[in-house]
UniProtKB/TrEMBL annotation:
Belongs to the peptidase S1 family. InterPro entries: Pept_S1A_streptogrisin, Peptidase_S1_PA, Peptidase_S1_PA_chymotrypsin. Keywords: Disulfide bond, Hydrolase, Protease, Serine protease. GO terms for molecular function: serine-type endopeptidase activity. This is Trypsin-like peptidase domain-containing protein.
Length: 337
């Protein structure tokens, strides 16, 4: 697969930004990106504004112009959904074998201790649901030195508009058999849902932790995602998967459910894998490059395609820096790091 150079992207970027909100307002449009135009299933080598639409025929937009400002468009059928896991509290379903880790690391399952009332059309049947996602990595707060937070997404950490600071989190999640109180590992400390970011910071409790991601190793810092580079993520559901960064210009419109509704995330990282990159329960996993630097926070996807917040805005909006083995002892947690 070929990758567009930065000069081609830079030329298209202002045109894409000018039209993306207009396109997103059209029925069926769920994303706007920059990519290579494909015709008849074959790449053309031409840079294009890529418009993602819902797969169902009636949801397709009535008209997307063939070009904008001299830049061709490419309409692609895609399904982009938030990848938290949600089951009815009473179902007894357990989608994956529950992992219990006495020492916490990134890449493991986590979820709110409370349940959530969800009604149609968001779900097929009204009921109490429990949520699972992934604890991505650890960070140190800049406003309160010494406080360690676990990073996950807003839609795992807050779920809906009923959240409050101090909400309890358990590992494993209640989806995977976690018990409120007995399995508490953190409480909600802060969150952000704006611009490029769907993120939450969980204040870690007494459980020992390490500044690493399971199956990946110690985190060495953060870096911008580089188009064409290989990345890995370790999520609660699909565990260790690999992909290649294809774009850092994706704008996607995602439905955060009752009480919050559709929100637009901009400048997202788009990753493609030869297999399934992520699935429900993987939201909150961090994308890590070949040097074990975090480049993104996984939020959504569909099959081989994944979307992630760029790590820079996540850290800035939560006012944190990543916890690494090199962080001075005075900035690290007092136990188990």
């Amino acid at each position: 697969m070929s990758y567009l150079d930065e000069n081609a992207r830079a030329a298209i970027r202002p045109i894409k930004r000018m039209v993306e909100d207009e396109f997103l307002a059209r029925p069926g449009v769920i994303g706007v990106d920059i990519g290579e135009k494909v015709t008849g299933g074959r790449p053309t080598g031409r840079a294009a504004i890529v418009v993602y639409v819902c797969a169902k025929g009636p949801e397709h937009p009535r008209q997307i112009p063939v070009e904008v400002g001299g830049v061709p468009t490419d309409v692609v059928a895609e399904s982009i959904v938030l990848h938290r896991a949600r089951i009815t509290h009473a179902s007894g379903e357990n989608p994956v074998a529950a992992e219990r880790h006495p020492v916490l690391r990134g890449g493991i399952g986590i979820g709110p201790a409370r349940s959530f009332r969800v009604v149609p059309p968001e779900v097929e049947r009204a009921g109490e649901y429990v949520i699972a996602g992934t604890l991505g990595a650890f960070a140190v707060t800049l406003d309160e030195p010494g406080k360690v937070l676990g990073l996950t997404t807003f839609h795992v950490g807050c779920v809906d508009d009923s959240w409050s600071v101090g909400d309890e989190f358990v590992h494993p999640s209640r989806v995977d058999g976690g018990v409120p109180g007995a399995d508490e590992v953190a409480v909600l400390d802060r969150a952000a849902l704006a611009g490029a970011v769907s993120a939450a910071g969980l204040r870690m409790g007494d459980r020992p932790l390490r500044a690493e991601v399971l199956d990946i190793g110690a985190i060495t810092g953060s870096a911008p995602a580089v188009i064409g580079s290989s990345v890995r993520k370790r999520g609660r559901t699909t565990q260790l998967t690999y992909g290649v960064v294809e774009s850092t210009d994706a704008t996607v419109r995602l439905d955060f459910g009752d009480g919050i509704g559709p929100r637009t995330l901009r400048d997202q990282i788009r990753v493609h894998s030869s297999e399934r990159f992520g699935d429900h329960g993987d939201s909150g996993a961090v994308l890590v490059d070949a040097d074990n630097r975090v480049v993104g926070l996984y939020v959504a996807g569909s099959g081989p395609t994944g979307f992630a917040n760029p790590v820079g805005p996540v850290l800035r909006q939560l006012d944190v820096e990543l916890l690494t083995p090199g962080v001075p002892e005075s900035r690290r947690p007092g136990r188990g790091a």
